[in-house]
Give the backbone structure.
Amino acid sequence: MTIPILSARNIEKSFGQMRAMQGASFDIHKGEVVALIGDNGAGKSTLTKILSGVLAPDSGEIYVDGKLVSFGSPLDARSHGIETVYQDLSLALDLNAVQNLYLGREIAAPGVLGRLGFLDKSRMRINAQESFSRLGVRVPDIRAAVANFSGGQRQGIAVARALMWAKRVVFMDEPTAALGVAQTRNVLELIRRVRDTGVSVVLISHSMPDVLAVSDRVTVLRHGRRVATYTTSAITSDDLVGAMTGALEPEGAAA
Amino acid sequence: MQHDTPPPAPFLRKLLDSPELMIFGSLILIIVIFMIMAPAAFLSGINLRNMAIEASMMMILAVGMTYVIVTSGIDLSVGAVLVFSSVVSVITMRATGSDAAWVPVLGLVVSLLSGAAWGLINGILIARARLTPLIVTLATMGVALGLARLLTGGIDLTGVPRSIVNSIGIGRIGGIPVIVLIACIFAIIGGVVLHMTRFGLYTYAIGSNEQGARRAGVKLQRHLIIVYVISGLCAGLAGYLTLARFSSTTISGHSMDNLKAITAVVLGGASLFGGIGSMYGTAAGVFIPVVLASGLIIVGLPSFWQEVAVGMVLLAAVLLDQYRRRSRSS
């Protein structure tokens, strides 16, 4: 077995009396789509936040390419090529698509001007347009504030931002929750294309059809623990629901 | 990846997206009306100079206020900080007991440092302690003004070095008052930084989506603190300029400055919800009350109409912002 591109071991995290993570583990390999599922309160979003640097775990280890790391902030995770598409998309609605794509990673203007904080707007615009068209994300007006766009278009921009910078792993938190049928198909297609470029995707989803359609493996969380990991081709929707609710006690559970 | 049709971009939408265009149009309209009604008086050198100086003093406060409002904050303390800074500046300059050329420079430095210190206090309480800007700056407004009155016993201080009054207060370069030149340079720098640099971009990003900006790597607390320090610095500079203009402190003359500065910024198209605003809009917003006040007197109407008119235009601006937000697709 190859070394996972990102893995977590025995993650513990409590919020006051609530133990959100009770020794959870997680693995994802290069070029793999892993669905992360579980009932409400199972710890999906807490684990995602810990692995993307938003929250620090109380204990437990995170490994990138087999090396122990610790994420003090989302920037640390990003410096390891780990990006997140947040459920709320995390876009600055008053800024345009290019500014959102580059927020926090702007290209400085050349020379002294750059050191004074001036930006190379035209280069960012050209690069952004190139990224959007490569990813098949349509932006109606590259200079208009994102606030003017529809939910699906904003989603496209948020996804494009994560994919543009991710070198290892993209976390996608319920990326299809707010989308219609055609848009959902587009997002799933995008996930496959990303995987084909060698970047791994963690898909957090409540939608069993989406999970079965696009993932290579499925990790099931319950009560802050990993209770099972399946190869997607070998399971049914009923198996997953059984594992999530605890009706089915799987054998050979990975945790 | 989307197949839905793009939202239409009719003329109304464009106008709504650039409220500063509307405000510029209104300003020009007002100016044209007064020019037709009373060309000689309105366009006289002395009236133009007075309007420019009046607007300049307000513009300096409004530069800082624009940054603050774009982050979705507010700074009620600017007028009080202005007064406090001018008071400590005069006291320091008088304490030297000297007429040397470095005394006015010392006075400027003291005034700016005082403004920056109040801004730092505001910024730390807002960014670190997570208190609402409205309450924090309301409190520091009271403290700063109270301290200024304690330091002076409530009586305005004179003894501003004559050189400041001559060079800055009543000085002119090429016929243009020095105060106006200072305000122009200051506003241009403020505008360039806001609209063309990373710092300005982050200011908009914070006002649009604070959490999103933080996730994207913007150092939220540091940035907010700097923004309030900028606003404090502006008040410190304005305080020094009032000394130069009136050759004394003007303790009770600035109780409405905070609201006037906020009015100018909002008239200029900024949104109190943050994320929207521009320095050229603010410049137009600064001029509208000034032009109205002077023009109404010239055409023989009570200048109290200026307050009525500005209040109504302000309401219209806020309603427009509300409508703009609601007409967004979510």
Summary: The mean pLDDT of chain B is 91. Chain B has 15 helices and two strands. Chain B touches chain A at residues 1-4, 6-7, 9, 17, 193, 196-199, 201, 204-205, 207-209, 211-213, 215-218, 274-276, 328-330 (CB under 8 Å). The longest helix of chain B spans residues 102-128.
